[in-house]
TrEMBL record:
It catalyses: L-cysteinyl-[protein] + hexadecanoyl-CoA = S-hexadecanoyl-L-cysteinyl-[protein] + CoA. It is an enzyme of class 2 (transferase). It is a multi-pass membrane protein. This is Palmitoyltransferase. It comes from Pan troglodytes.
Length: 392
C-alpha cells in the first residue's frame, strides 16, 4: 500500500521540485507560489489522513471487506442499537438477512416439491415407492427445520462473569475477564464464547459448546436433503430442461411465422402458463439443490474431519502452529481433547448408549452436551487408552 502511494507520489514530487527550482531561481510569481503552498498543505492533509504505523495489507483487506462485515452485523430486518462493550448479544429471535435467505430458499424448495413434483409423481410412481419418498422426505425436512431452529435460538454458552472458582487459562483482552480452556472472544457477539467454533452469519449466532451439535446436524441433514432432491429430480429436471428448450424454439418459430404473415390471426399458445412455471421451477430446484449440496457438503465434510480429531475450527489453526513449533524442537504435539475418532463422535453427539444413535441422532433431540464447557474431563465411558491421552 505504501509502495503504491510512493509510486503515485513520486512523479508528482519530481514535478514539484522542478517547479520550486524554477520558481526560486526566477523570483517565483505569486500564482505559482500559491499553488506550491496549496500542494504542500494538501500533501500534509493527505498524509495525516492516510498515515498509520500499523497499516499494511491486512488493514487494506479488512477495509475492503468492511461492507461485508457491516452486512453480517447489521443486515437485519428491524434496526436496534448494537450492543456496546460488555453488552449482551443480539436476542436470538432477531431476524437477519442470511437467516431470512435460508428460510426463503428452503421454503421455495418445499413449495415446489408440493406444488410441482408431487402431482407429477402421484401419477407415475407405484404406491410403495410413493410411501418411501413420503416418509424419507418428511423425516429429512423435520430434522432440517428442528436443527436449524435449535441452532439459531440456542445460545452457544458464555463463561460466567465475576466468578473466581472456575479453571481459566488466560484473560480475555477485550472483556477483561478470565477465559476457560477452549473459550474464545467473538468480535461480532462482542463477548467470550465457550468452545467457540466460529460465528455463523447463516445462523446469526455463534457456534459454541451448546449449539455445535445443532449446527453440524443442520449442515449434515441439509446436505442429505439437497442430494436427495437433486438425485431424485434428475429425470424431471432433464424433461423440464428439454421442454424449456422446445418452448424457446416454438416461440422463435411463432415469431418468425408472424413476421412472415403466415398467420392471419394470433396463434394459440403452445404451453400453458402452469406448464411453463412447472418446468422452470423444476430447473430452479435442481440447480439450487445441486449447488447447495456441493458447497454445504464440502463444509460438512470439513467439520466432520475436525470433529473426528476433537478440534474446533479455531483450535485447528492453533494446534497446527503448536504442532509445527514442537516439531521444530523434536517433540510431538498431542491434542488433549482428542479421545479417539469414535469416542469424539459419541461425546459430540451425546451418545452414551447404543439406543441413543436412534433417539438422539436420527430423531430430533434437545439433550445437552457433555460437561459445562469450562472443564473438560472425559466422560466415564471413554476408553482407558483415550483417558491416558487426556492425561498427557
Ligand atoms: Zn472476551
Ligand atoms: Zn459470535
Amino acid at each position: 500500500m505504501r509502495g503504491q502511494r510512493s509510486l503515485l507520489l513520486g512523479p508528482a514530487r519530481l514535478c514539484l521540485r522542478l517547479l520550486l527550482l524554477l520558481g526560486y531561481r526566477r523570483r517565483c510569481p505569486p500564482l505559482l507560489r500559491g499553488l506550491v503552498q496549496r500542494w504542500r498543505y494538501g500533501k500534509v492533509c493527505l498524509r495525516s489522513l492516510l498515515y498509520n504505523s500499523f497499516g499494511g495489507s491486512d488493514t487494506a483487506v479488512d477495509a475492503a471487506f468492511e461492507p461485508v462485515y457491516w452486512l453480517v452485523d447489521n443486515g437485519h430486518v428491524s434496526h436496534r442499537p448494537n450492543p456496546g462493550f460488555g453488552g449482551r448479544p443480539p436476542p436470538p429471535g432477531k431476524l437477519r438477512v442470511f437467516v431470512v435467505l435460508v428460510i426463503v430458499l428452503t421454503g421455495s424448495i418445499v413449495a415446489i416439491a408440493y406444488l410441482c413434483v408431487l402431482p407429477l409423481i402421484l401419477r407415475t410412481y407405484s404406491v410403495p415407492r410413493l410411501c418411501w419418498h413420503f416418509f424419507y422426505s418428511h423425516w429429512n425436512l423435520i430434522l432440517i427445520v428442528f436443527h436449524y431452529y435449535q441452532a439459531i435460538t440456542t445460545p452457544p454458552g458464555y463463561p460466567p462473569q465475576g466468578r473466581n472458582d472456575i479453571a481459566t487459562v488466560s484473560i480475555c483482552k477485550k472483556c477483561i475477564y478470565p477465559k476457560p480452556a477452549r473459550t474464545h472472544h467473538c468480535s461480532i457477539c462482542n463477548r467470550c464464547v465457550l468452545k467457540m467454533d466460529h460465528h455463523c452469519p447463516w445462523l446469526n449466532n455463534c457456534v459454541g459448546h451448546y449449539n455445535h451439535r445443532y449446527f453440524f446436524s443442520f449442515c449434515f441433514f441439509m446436505t442429505l436433503g439437497c442430494v436427495y432432491c437433486s438425485y431424485g429430480s434428475w429425470d424431471l429436471f432433464r424433461e423440464a430442461y428439454a421442454a424449456i428448450e422446445k418452448m424457446k424454439q416454438l416461440d422463435k418459430n411463432k415469431l418468425q411465422a408472424v413476421a412472415n404473415q403466415t398467420y392471419h390471426q394470433t396463434p394459440p399458445p403452445t404451453f400453458s402458463f402452469r406448464e411453463r412455471m412447472t418446468h422452470k421451477s423444476l430447473v430452479y430446484l435442481w440447480f439450487l439443490c445441486s449447488s447447495v449440496a456441493l458447497a454445504l457438503g464440502a463444509l460438512t465434510v470439513w467439520h466432520a474431519v475436525l470433529i473426528s480429531r476433537g478440534e474446533t475450527s479455531i483450535e485447528r489453526h492453533i494446534n497446527k502452529k503448536e504442532r509445527r513449533r514442537l516439531q521444530a524442537k523434536g517433540r510431538v504435539f498431542t491434542n488433549p481433547y482428542n479421545y479417539g475418532c469414535l469416542d469424539n463422535w459419541k461425546v459430540f453427539l451425546g451418545v452414551d448408549t447404543g439406543r441413543h444413535w436412534l433417539t438422539r441422532v436420527l430423531l430430533p433431540s434437545s439433550h445437552l452436551p457433555h460437561g459445562n464447557g469450562m472443564s473438560w474431563e472425559p466422560p466415564p465411558w471413554v476408553t482407558a487408552h483415550s483417558a491416558s491421552v487426556m492425561a498427557v
